[in-house]
Structures are given as C-alpha cells and as structure tokens.
Amino acid sequence: MDTAANLIRAYLDAFNRGDRPAMLALLTEDVAHDVNQGGREVGREAFAAFMARMDRCYRERLVDIVVMAEPTGTRASAEFIVEGEYLATDEGLPPAAGQRYRLPAGAFYDIRDGRIARVTMHYNLQDWIRQVGG
User: Fold this and answer.
1) CATH number at residue 58
2) pLDDT in tens, 4-33
3) Which contacts of 84-93 are long-range, i.e. CB under 8 A and separated by 24 or more positions?
4) What phi, psi does 89 have (nearest 5°)?
5) Which residue range is the domain that position 76 belongs to?
6) Element (H, E) at 39
7) Cα–Cα distance, 102 to 87 (Å, whole number)
8) If 73 and its partner were Cys, which of 4, 10, 33, 79 is the partner (CB 3.0–4.6 Å)?
9) Full-prediction pTM beyond 0.90?
C-alpha cells in the first residue's frame, strides 16, 4: 500500500515541478487516460500529447493533496485542489485571458508492475467555466 501511495505522490510531485519526462516514466506504455467529462485515450504518447496541450493552455499547481491506496496496492486515488491560470484558449472552452481558478479535483489510478496503468480525472467543469467567466 505504501508503495502505491508513494508512486502517486511521486507522479503528482513531478506534475507540480512541471517535469513531464518524470511523469511519463511513471506510466505504463499502454496507460489508459480517462479525460474529465471526455473520452479515453490510450498510450504514453497520447498522454504526452495531452499534457503538451495542457501546458500550452494552463499553468496549474496541485495543493492540499491527499493520497489513498487500497491494501493490495493495485488501486489508488488522490484528492487535491487545482490552483491554476488559464493561459491560452482551449478548444471548445471560453476564451482565455489569464483568469485564475481554484478547483477541487480527484484522480483514480490503477497500478500494474510498479507503474500507473490508468489515470481517471474528475472535476466540476461547470464550476471551472463559472470561475473563468464563461
């Protein structure tokens, strides 16, 4: 259980440092990424492309992180607050003008062979849209 929690903490710490190579190294090659209120993307390359778009459109930091893992170490979750700035307009979303936001979020993970095999994100998109003035 501690190993799973430590893996998730390392992943989230890498996110906060902006260290995308370190994040990607913690994922399986066939990682499944369930995008919040969207579809599923599969593979480390698809995840890297998603993160590149995120980095272009948003500057985010996760705070108040709580990580939980179940006893076998194959599943874990994290709850946190996303503190962010909307830098560039993301497709289908309101125009960006540097708006700041603070949003509760959660993530769920499957763990296989010491790496993250699934990332499922959840946050309230309507709350985010209200905060950025959409």
Assistant:
1) 3.10.450.50
2) 999 999 999 999 999 999 999 999 999 999
3) 84/58, 84/59, 84/60, 85/58, 85/59, 85/60, 86/57, 86/58, 86/132, 87/56, 87/57, 87/58, 87/59, 88/56, 88/57, 89/57, 90/53, 90/57, 90/58, 93/129, 93/132, 93/134
4) -60, 125
5) 2-131
6) none
7) 15
8) 4
9) yes
